[in-house]
């Protein structure tokens, strides 16, 4: 399923559920619902979430900076021959395709969170480790499992439980809805690896005309649910 459909369905349904359960729909709840609806696709560098967080303009800027950086390392770093090896490595990285460069950036950000982020917040160590791990995963792998759902929901619960349940409920349900939506596709998901159990409804294939119809139907049903949940506020 396309990223924009995940965004609408995951966010719309999770916030509607909050409203119907009588919970507050706060700005933090909306934020984690938006993130949670796209987060399982963090294992795909060209996904909506990653491409928005690391846009093409940033990738082009990085490529522009890396080549001069390689020249600088070669001529001005005195540690020979390590400077040559490092310069060659930096130069090669600059010619990587955008998808691979996004993975490099994700790994570098995760590494920074592990070594320096914990000074600002202890959970940065976990976030950085998970970010680096995601760069090694295949699409619809570990992040598209009940384990991934439990980790995301648990992190939200442990860090926001004093602010009320609406944050972790919104974020966790939006994440789970992403998995449910992907289970409608021909490929489906494996929710409990290493078990071979695969959940797939074979209703659609992402990127096809039939798939677009199924996605549009799901989006319309989401909008109907949202209208039913929130319309009393305006009547």
UniProtKB/TrEMBL annotation:
<dbReference type="Pfam" id="PF04307">
    <property type="entry name" value="YdjM"/>
</dbReference>
<feature type="transmembrane region" description="Helical">
    <location>
        <begin position="57"/>
        <end position="77"/>
    </location>
</feature>
<keyword id="KW-0378">Hydrolase</keyword>
<feature type="transmembrane region" description="Helical">
    <location>
        <begin position="212"/>
        <end position="230"/>
    </location>
</feature>
<feature type="transmembrane region" description="Helical">
    <location>
        <begin position="84"/>
        <end position="101"/>
    </location>
</feature>
<protein>
    <submittedName>
        <fullName>Metal-dependent hydrolase</fullName>
    </submittedName>
</protein>
<dbReference type="InterPro" id="IPR007404">
    <property type="entry name" value="YdjM-like"/>
</dbReference>
<keyword id="KW-0812">Transmembrane</keyword>
<feature type="transmembrane region" description="Helical">
    <location>
        <begin position="107"/>
        <end position="133"/>
    </location>
</feature>
<dbReference type="GO" id="GO:0016787">
    <property type="term" value="F:hydrolase activity"/>
</dbReference>
<keyword id="KW-1133">Transmembrane helix</keyword>
<keyword id="KW-0472">Membrane</keyword>
């Amino acid at each position: 399923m396309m990223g924009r459909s995940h965004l609408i369905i995951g966010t719309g349904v999770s916030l509607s559920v909050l409203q119907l359960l009588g919970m507050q729909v706060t700005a933090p709840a909306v934020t984690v619902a938006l993130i949670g609806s796209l987060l399982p696709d963090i294992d795909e560098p060209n996904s909506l979430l990653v491409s928005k967080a690391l846009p093409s303009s940033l990738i082009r800027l990085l490529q522009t900076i890396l080549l001069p950086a390689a020249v600088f390392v070669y001529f001005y770093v005195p540690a020979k021959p390590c400077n040559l090896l490092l310069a060659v490595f930096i130069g090669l990285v600059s010619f990587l395709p955008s998808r691979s460069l996004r993975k490099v950036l994700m790994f570098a950000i995760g590494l920074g969170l592990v070594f320096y982020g914990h000074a600002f917040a202890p959970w940065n160590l976990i976030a950085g480790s998970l970010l680096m791990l995601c760069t090694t995963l295949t699409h619809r792998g570990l992040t598209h499992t009940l384990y991934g759902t439990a980790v995301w929901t648990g992190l939200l619960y442990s860090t926001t439980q004093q602010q009320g349940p609406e944050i972790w409920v919104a974020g966790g349900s939006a994440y789970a809805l992403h998995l449910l939506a992907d289970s409608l596709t021909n490929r489906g998901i494996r929710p409990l690896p290493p078990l071979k159990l695969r959940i797939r409804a074979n209703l659609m294939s992402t990127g096809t005309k039939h798939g677009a119809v199924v996605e549009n139907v799901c989006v319309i049903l989401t909008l109907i649910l949202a209208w039913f949940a929130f319309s009393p506020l305006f009547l």
